[in-house]
Amino acid sequence: MPGKTPDKEPVENGGYRGGKDIDMKDKDLKPKGKKADDEMTVVVPPSKASKQSSAPPPNDAEGDVAMDDAEKTGDGEVKVDPVVQTINDIKSNFALLDRAVALFDARFSLRALRSISSIRKRLTPDILAQAISETYTSSSPGAGDAKKLLLAIGRSDVSLGRQPGPEMEIDSEPKASGKNGAKKEPKEVIPEIDIFLAILTQVALHDSKQFQQGFEFSQYLVDRVRSLNRRTLDSLAAKAYFYYSLFAEQLAPLPPSPRSPIVSIRPTLLAALRTAVLRKDVDTQASVIVLLLRNYLLTSHIAQADLLVSHTQFPENAANNQVARFLYYLGRTRAIQLRYTEAHEHLTAATRKAPSSACALGFSHSATKLLLVVELLMGDIPDRATFRQPNMETALQPYLLLVQAVRVGNLGDFETVIAEHADTFGRDGTYTLILRLRQNVIKTGIRMMSLSYSRISLRDICIRLHLGSEESAEYIVAKAIRDGVIEATLDRERGFMKSKEVGDVYATREPGEAFHDRIRACLALHDESVKAMRFPMNQHRLELKNAQEAREREREMAKEIQEGDLDEDDLGGEFEGM
């Protein structure tokens, strides 16, 4: 067959198994016009089989494969080292903090803080120590603060500055920058990056349950934050105070003991609140008010919590999460003070403002449990749909049994539920409030009997409600009539209760009042949503400047057209004017 040599088999493209350069010195392959001693080198790429059978790349000094901190799997996907990825995630927030300082915009600092929830799942003391050592150098101004961070996480032996590995090629001549050829100095680390790394240190200590060491480090961090008067540190300072209080709650003796460390941090928090108000630091102000309310409630100092609320004003433009916490603690305070109507309003707003993410599910459970108890204390029966929510069905099971006992008015079932789930109610902080429901159970039972019977004797009421005597039943019925729980009259001589006929509820003002309450709640939600909207600072000025420049260009173009310097062809189309 022409064009094919019978002695040799055809070779596929790239099928040469050697994978080396072939020096073809045959005379027939020499190009014309070249000397006899010239040679041509043909490079044949290795085949896929040779690539797969080749030896793996050598490891670097740290044991990782030298493939730019990544490996390629068989499917072609790039597998990144989780340690390197975590360090890169930490360092990526430094750019956000730099932009927050340069643009004076707190939104970039909030973005950096929101990333902590994803970083803390992979954060270890070794990773944090490596990130700190690569951020600072031994000659940088913040080297002392960096050593304190390393000492707090138990990595004081780590040296500052990136250490060159044996595989790195070091130039013999230093790289010059500038006219004089001097070495480029390392970039100075701003205080925002210092505080951010310190917050990560607090997170690492809290997750490793080193509460005593974390409390001591938080005291140092709080003092340093107070010494810095920078508005770009407001959101970071609020987070630092949060972990400071959290560490104090975990130290023995635990609250509600009066010797708990949370009592000793109150002067620090109050001083921070005064400073935040003077500096108009909204984030720290909102956070510290919430921490103080929680502090007072943990030690049952209800009067001091009430004084704090009455003498301070919670900032209107605070973050939504802080507003939800403030409303929850305020609702708990009002419920303990027997002001159930106000407590119901605050707790309802707290449940509506609660984040819908899974990380805030515990807060939603606590607020909903307290709201259910307050509704029972007000004499209302909660909606059954509340207990059917998939993420709350298990947590609210004891409260469902409690609501069923109160709704029926069965005092025996009520006491049984309290005895069986006393530990659960104690952990939720609702046990003392639930004990107040005994009178409500009795009132509910009386209401059910007033609707079922037009006339019933006090003896029968005493037997059905498991009361001690007929005098107790008479007192309870009289109080229920005075409070407006039932529409009835009491005949003390004959010893019976006579119910009145129930009129049409729509002939009263109750439907209109309920409709008015719903409208007011919707309008308040709209107003709060408008206040919570955030916009870039001075963005309107930039838009006005751009619009003014556009109008000036249009005027110049119109003037040139009138003078004859420009025509439609120069403009690239029709000119419509201003």
Task: Work out the helix count.
Answer: 26
The whole-angstrom Rg is 38 Å
Largest sheet: 3 strands, antiparallel
Average of per-residue pLDDT values: 79
**Biggest sheet, spatial arrangement of strands:** 5-7-6
Count of strand segments: 7
- Which structural class should the secondary elements be placed in? mainly alpha
Q: What percent of residues are in strands?
A: under 5%
State the shape.
Answer: globular
Q: How much helical structure, as a percent, in the residues?
A: 55-70%
Low-confidence stretches: 1-44, 48-69, 163-184, 572-578
Distance between the termini: 79 Å
Describe, in plain words, how this protein is organized in 3D.
With 578 residues, the protein is mainly α. Among the domains are: 81-162 and 188-263, no CATH class; 548-578. It is built from 26 helices and seven strands. It has helices at residues 48-52, 82-103, 106-114, 116-119, 125-135, 143-152, 191-207, 211-227, 234-249, 261-264, 266-279, 282-298, 302-311, 320-336, 340-353, 361-377, 397-408, 411-420, 422-428, 431-435, 437-452, 458-464, 470-482, 510-532, 539-563, 568-571, and strands at residues 21-24, 40-43, 70-72, 78-80, 455-457, 488-491, 496-499. The strands form three sheets. It has a three-stranded antiparallel beta sheet. A two-stranded antiparallel sheet has the order 1-2. A hairpin with a 4-residue loop joins strand 6 and strand 7. The longest helix is centred in the C-terminal third of the chain and has 25 residues, at 539-563. The termini are far apart. Mean pLDDT is 79; it is low at 1-44, 48-69, 163-184 and 572-578.
